[in-house]
């Protein structure tokens, strides 16, 4: 892996047209719209791991969908990944639950060698087609496997970057999170980094309280796994401190913890519609709040970067 190379430029489209984002301003605090919670936050196929295993969306958090939030605040996650890959030519990337490759095909276009691990045959078929259309089929490997079988699926990966976005909330229970993190850590090269994107517990508490779901908010705040009961579509929600402890137990240390969507999920659509420059101004506010404790803790999603403890 050569050093001092220009950083990869990640084209969010991957050279292939992507589905249009859900229009912003469709917040559903009460969780009545999209009752199945099957909105696809990454603009990917319904078969993607994060969408297929556990329902998500407004019903899951009581807030605006992730697609709405991404459209409103830009793509700070991609910006963080660009910084991680700066100076790394031909970086090896593993995307666990990457589905149809909406994030990883652009990484392949940028010069990375990408392996996508996902249990969905349909999603992986879309991934292969998308990679071929983008001209990077030789840099994208599709592996059908679940997170539980990660070690056997990728072996001694020695990856520069491992992505696990919107997946950990789908594990069977909180008790399954430590082995999942250990498996992810085992894929990393000594100089590699793990990128996690998980739902924030404080955001769910606030959104449910604002929707009048006070008992659910109390349960999410008090329960170890951040759930409000058996009807909760998510299996786990996280806060930064607890997730940092779990990562430390897996031999990783957190180097970056950002909040994605601190206020955008709470804004009525009319506010942005009334301001022609509203989206740009909101993106600036979100960027400012994303790294500012304690406000970052209130984000709908938490983007965590962790590296091997010896780094």
Automatic annotation (TrEMBL):
<feature type="compositionally biased region" description="Pro residues">
    <location>
        <begin position="1"/>
        <end position="10"/>
    </location>
</feature>
<dbReference type="GO" id="GO:0008168">
    <property type="term" value="F:methyltransferase activity"/>
</dbReference>
<protein>
    <submittedName>
        <fullName>Methyltransferase domain-containing protein</fullName>
    </submittedName>
</protein>
<feature type="region of interest" description="Disordered">
    <location>
        <begin position="1"/>
        <end position="71"/>
    </location>
</feature>
<dbReference type="InterPro" id="IPR029063">
    <property type="entry name" value="SAM-dependent_MTases_sf"/>
</dbReference>
<keyword id="KW-0808">Transferase</keyword>
<dbReference type="GO" id="GO:0032259">
    <property type="term" value="P:methylation"/>
</dbReference>
<feature type="compositionally biased region" description="Low complexity">
    <location>
        <begin position="12"/>
        <end position="48"/>
    </location>
</feature>
<keyword id="KW-0489">Methyltransferase</keyword>
<dbReference type="Pfam" id="PF13489">
    <property type="entry name" value="Methyltransf_23"/>
</dbReference>
């Amino acid at each position: 892996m050569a050093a001092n190379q220009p950083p990869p430029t990640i084209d969010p489209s991957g050279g292939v047209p992507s589905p249009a984002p859900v229009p912003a301003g469709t917040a559903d605090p009460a969780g009545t719209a999209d009752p199945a919670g099957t909105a696809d936050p990454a603009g990917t196929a319904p078969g993607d791991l994060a969408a297929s295993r556990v329902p998500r969306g407004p019903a899951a958090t009581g807030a605006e969908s992730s697609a709405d939030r991404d459209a409103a605040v830009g793509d700070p996650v991609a910006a963080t990944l660009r910084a991680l890959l700066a100076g790394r030519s031909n970086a090896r990337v593993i995307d666990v639950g990457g589905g149809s490759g909406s994030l990883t095909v652009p990484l392949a276009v940028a010069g990375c060698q990408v392996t996508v691990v996902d249990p969905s045959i349909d999603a992986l078929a879309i991934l292969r087609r998308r990679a071929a259309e983008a001209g990077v089929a030789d840099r994208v490997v599709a592996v059908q496997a679940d997170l539980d079988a990660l070690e056997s699926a990728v072996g001694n990966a020695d990856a520069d970057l491992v992505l696990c976005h919107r997946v950990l909330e789908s594990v069977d229970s909180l008790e399954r999170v430590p082995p999942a993190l250990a498996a992810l850590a085992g894929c990393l090269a000594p100089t590699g980094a793990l990128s996690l994107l998980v739902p924030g517990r404080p955001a769910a508490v606030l959104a449910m309280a604002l929707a009048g779901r006070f008992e659910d908010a109390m349960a999410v705040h008090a329960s170890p796994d951040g759930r409000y009961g058996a009807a909760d579509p998510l299996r786990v929600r996280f806060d930064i401190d607890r997730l940092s402890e779990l990562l430390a137990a897996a031999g990783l240390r957190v180097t970056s913890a950002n909040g994605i969507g601190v206020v955008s999920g709470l804004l009525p659509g009319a506010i942005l519609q009334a301001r022609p420059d509203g989206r740009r101004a909101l993106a600036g506010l979100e960027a400012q709040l994303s790294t500012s404790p304690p406000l970052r803790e209130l984000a709908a999603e938490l983007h965590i970067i962790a590296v091997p403890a010896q780094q």
